[in-house]
Design brief:
By secondary structure, this protein is of the alpha/beta class. It has helices at residues 6-15, 154-162, 201-211, 226-232, 256-262, 297-315, 369-374; strands spanning 22-26, 39-40, 50-51, 55-58, 68-76, 90-94, 106-109, 113-116, 119-122, 132-133, 144-146, 167-171, 175-181, 185-186, 197-198, 215-222, 241-245, 265-270, 274-275, 281-285, 288-293, 326-330, 341-350, 356-360, 377-381, 393-398. The chain folds into four domains: 6-21 and 173-315, Molybdenum Cofactor Biosythetic Enzyme, Chain A (3-Layer(aba) Sandwich); 22-45 and 138-171, Alpha-Beta Complex (Molybdopterin biosynthesis moea protein, domain 2); 50-133, Molybdopterin biosynthesis moea protein, domain 3 (Molybdopterin biosynthesis moeA protein, domain 3); 326-398, MoeA, C-terminal, domain IV (Beta-clip, Beta Barrel). The two termini are 37 Å apart.
């Protein structure tokens, strides 16, 4: 069976994934969520002219020369404005954020005054608008300031609050069912017999799902029998996507494709031209998308990094896309590449000219979680790429487990 090129596989997964419905939540819970509709300001900010300094509100025509002494006739605080109208020859004590009194058009900082009772001598001239925040300086009622498809940051939450928006519509969090397969697997902390290994893939993928804004549903470990796999799949109800780990290669006990086929799985493709991660499967069980990750942990991570992250983005209203690669210099040579696009684990540094340098690990075995956990990114080697010496330019991508790009 031929290997499906990566770009073709990405296009097929993109076509099989759809954004989830929207839900309304409190703005206090909305950080890290993606807006499903535009949001307009419900008020003007500031609603009227306010002071940007602690000082005195004045008529600028009174202070065209200095020094000049005016009579203080009141005070304006945020929440306690001066109710009268300022006349020529008068001033009002004012504090930052307080409304500018009627008749005033400027503020002089308190540091530029001398005060004697209600007589205030000004040592600075004034002009119309000095230290004044005009009404609507930030935004006006009806302005669309936060748009559909936007991933909400802490700054956006502050803006939404200032807009007087208590609720927002966001795309629902994806519910991701995760199933590990294999008689050889045991959970962390359990007794490990000879020929058994710790199940790391399912919890690693669950952690990625959480970091990407989804809700992982751990279905546990299915043994290498049809009965065990069917029983474990009973927990699939209510999930938006199924992720399996292991059981999709050509081995004698690889039952996932057969059992899921009996459950209604329609396989779109199986086996792709990437390294590590060739035995990757994508299809649907009814209307639920299903991804089959390889059993080797690095292969499972790389395929989840490429396909699952993009799928979770789209399900939450973001574009189905990869983080953009960047250029770096190789810190060590790399050999000729074969017919699969390779993702080599690497550490990054900078040379004395500030250029990014990517140094691959000597060992790239797909079972080695140690250098996967400590790597900072991947060197992307193209199909049939020629051997490169240290110092050559190459494409790299940072490892990033969250919705936000590095």
């Amino acid at each position: 069976m031929s290997l499906l090129p990566l770009e073709d596989a990405l296009a097929k997964v993109d076509g099989g994934i759809a954004p989830l419905p929207a839900e309304q939540i409190s703005v206090a819970e909305a950080v890290g969520r993606v807006l499903a509709e535009d949001v307009a300001a419900r008020l003007t900010q500031p609603p009227s002219a306010v002071s940007s300094m602690d000082g005195y509100a004045v008529c600028s025509s009174d202070l065209q020369t200095q020094p000049r002494t005016l009579t203080r006739v009141g005070e304006s605080q945020a929440g306690g404005p001066f109710e009268g109208t300022l006349q020529s020859g008068q001033c009002v004590r004012i504090f930052t954020g307080a409304p500018l009194p009627a008749g005033a058009d400027a503020v002089i900082m308190q540091e530029d005054t001398d005060v004697d009772g209600d007589q205030v001598t000004f040592k600075e001239v004034a002009f119309d608008g000095k230290f004044v925040r005009r009404a609507g300086l930030d935004f006006s009622k009806g302005d669309v300031l936060v748009k559909a498809g936007q991933l909400l940051t802490a700054r956006d939450i502050g803006l939404l609050c200032a807009m007087n928006v208590p609720w927002v519509k966001v795309y629902r969090k994806p519910r991701v069912a995760i199933l590990a397969t294999g008689d050889e697997l045991v959970m962390p902390g359990e007794a490990v017999r000879e020929s058994q290994i710790i199940s790391s893939n399912s919890l690693m993928v669950a952690a990625m799902v959480t970091a990407m804004g989804g809700v992982p549903i751990n279905l546990g470990i299915a043994g290498d029998t049809e009965e065990s796999l069917r029983a474990t799949l009973a927990g699939l109800n209510g999930a938006d996507i199924l992720i399996t780990s292991g059981g999709v290669s050509v081995g004698e006990y690889d039952l996932v494709r057969n059992v899921l086929g009996e459950e209604g799985l329609d396989i779109d493709f199986w086996r792709i031209a990437i390294k590590p991660g060739k035995p990757f499967m994508f299809g649907k069980i009814g209307e639920i998308p299903a991804m089959g990750l390889p059993g080797n942990p690095v292969s499972a991570y790389v395929t989840a990094f490429i396909f699952l992250r993009a799928a979770l983005k789209k399900m939450q209203g973001l574009p189905f896309e990869q983080d953009k690669p960047m250029k770096a210099l190789l810190g060590a040579g790399v050999p000729v590449n074969g017919i699969r696009q390779e993702y080599m684990r690497a550490v990054f540094s900078h040379d004395d000219q500030g250029r990014l340098v990517a140094t691959p690990y000597d060992k790239q075995d797909s079972s080695m979680l140690g250098n996967l956990a400590h790597c900072e990114g991947f060197i992307i080697r193209p199909v049939n790429g020629e051997a490169l010496q240290a110092g050559s330019e190459t494409d790299v991508i940072y490892v990033n487990d969250s919705l936000l790009s590095v």
